[in-house]
Specification:
Radius of gyration: 18 Å
Number of strands: 2
Distance between the termini: 35 Å
Largest sheet: 2 strands, antiparallel
Oligomer: single chain
Order of helices and strands: HEHHHHHHEHH
Structural class: mainly alpha
Helix content: 40-55%
Number of helices: 9
């Protein structure tokens, strides 16, 4: 790889993460280049204090005024009450995922689950899908993101344009693949008109976890096949986590 090509790739990577960390207020114009703003608009029309519509046990106070520990405790009570999903906040993060992120990244459980923290958690999830890199890789990243957020569509395969959780609790994609690919490329996309209610409920916690397990098995199978043919690369050999696992 030539130095100029390495520099170009590095620039694209830096640009993506700068855009990902953009001020959420930029989305107020109706268009955005911020992936997180798009996810929030689709997943949580009521904003950072939103929670899955089938949850009957309301939080004791706005989610953004609660600590991570308080949110985790409330999500446990929600699950004990019989709710099928514990999806909470602007990115509809379920309890197992939140608990994993807190543990894996050493987050302070006394820190507020405020917009800044929720954005940080979402960026950690996006990072698990890997660097978007050149446009040729964007569909793979988009598929990974579709496994995290039900409102995002798959970008490849026979189910292109559909939610990875289609037919699970009535879920459907709330945007199209071209929109996701455009925002991954740093291009402005139009945000949906703000609805009063999310178009479909979040998938049950078990469905999210099961989807991650299926992808992990596929990756493990690919690694075994590559090992058998002698084509396993150092980058794969050094994986310390499954970059495509939902949980």
């Amino acid at each position: 790889m030539t130095p100029s090509l390495r520099l170009a790739r590095a620039f694209r990577s830096v640009l993506f993460w700068i855009l990902l960390a953009a001020n959420p207020a930029a989305a107020q114009s109706g268009t955005t280049t911020d992936l997180l703003a798009l996810v929030r608009a689709l997943e949580a029309p009521r904003g950072y204090d939103d929670y899955e519509r089938r949850i009957r046990l309301a939080p004791p106070k706005p989610l953004t005024a609660m600590t991570l520990d308080e949110v985790l405790s409330w999500q446990s009570r929600v699950r004990d009450s019989g709710a099928p999903s514990t999806a909470s906040g602007g990115y509809q993060i379920i309890r197992p995922t939140l608990a994993r992120l807190v543990r894996q990244h050493g987050l302070d459980r006394d820190a507020l689950f405020d917009p800044a923290m929720q954005d940080r958690l979402a960026r950690l999830l996006v990072a698990e899908c890997g660097d978007p890199g050149p446009p040729s890789r964007h569909p793979v990243v988009a598929d990974c993101l579709a496994g995290i957020w039900a409102a995002l569509p798959l970008a490849t395969g026979a189910r292109r344009g559909q939610s990875a959780y289609r037919d699970v609790a009535g879920n459907r994609a709330l945007t199209d693949p071209d929109t996701v690919l455009a925002v991954l490329a740093g291009q402005p996309v139009r945000l949906p008109d703000r609805p009063t209610e999310r178009g479909a409920p979040s998938p049950d916690d078990e469905a999210v976890l099961a989807f991650g397990t299926v992808r992990l098995r596929r990756i493990q199978s690919a690694v075994r096949a590559a090992t058998g043919t002698g084509t396993l690369t150092p980058s794969v050999r050094n994986w310390s986590f499954d970059p495509y696992a939902v949980d």
